[in-house]
């Protein structure tokens, strides 16, 4: 595949994702975020593979490093948001009157 074809796939995939995410009801955002974290984990593995296989000073090394940074940011942020949401559902300790 040439670079133009890959760019078109990226553009159309981004527009399709934006359209689909915009139509998700609020009750499904948590499972959707869990799926996005899983996909970002796979992206991190692919980026690490690209970085390992890349030659020094190649564009693949730069693109792999950037994608690893974005995927890592998404995974860590997703864990913080999930932890905060789960804290909202935990029971608060009650004080017993003596």
TrEMBL record:
A GO term, aspect molecular function: oxidoreductase activity
Keyword Lyase: no
Group of enzyme by EC: translocase
Domain NAD(P) transhydrogenase alpha subunit C-terminal positions: 7-91
Listed GO biological process terms: NADPH regeneration
Its membrane topology: Multi-pass membrane protein
Any GO CC annotation of this UniProt entry: plasma membrane
Subcellular locations according to the entry: Cell inner membrane
Residues that span the membrane, as ranges: 32-52, 59-81
Pfam families: PNTB_4TM
Record-listed E.C. numbers: 7.1.1.1
Catalyses which reaction(s): NAD(+) + NADPH + H(+)(in) = NADH + NADP(+) + H(+)(out)
Function in brief: The transhydrogenation between NADH and NADP is coupled to respiration and ATP hydrolysis and functions as a proton pump across the membrane.
Protein name listed in UniProt: proton-translocating NAD(P)(+) transhydrogenase
